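FAQ: What does the model actually see?

It sees only this:
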Amino acid sequence: MGIIRKSMSVTTLGVVDFRSDKERTAAYAKATKKQAKLQTKLMKQQAKLAKKMHG
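And it is asked to produce this:
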């Protein structure tokens, strides 16, 4: 994705961003989704453990 942008980034020693705004936004959204899933999983485990201990 964006071979011209990536090669310009390398040849200009980083003056041109390696990733476009669109790519940065997509990567951030993906990371956020992954963390939300992990948090939900951990909360379910805690609830299950609490129920087991109190019930």
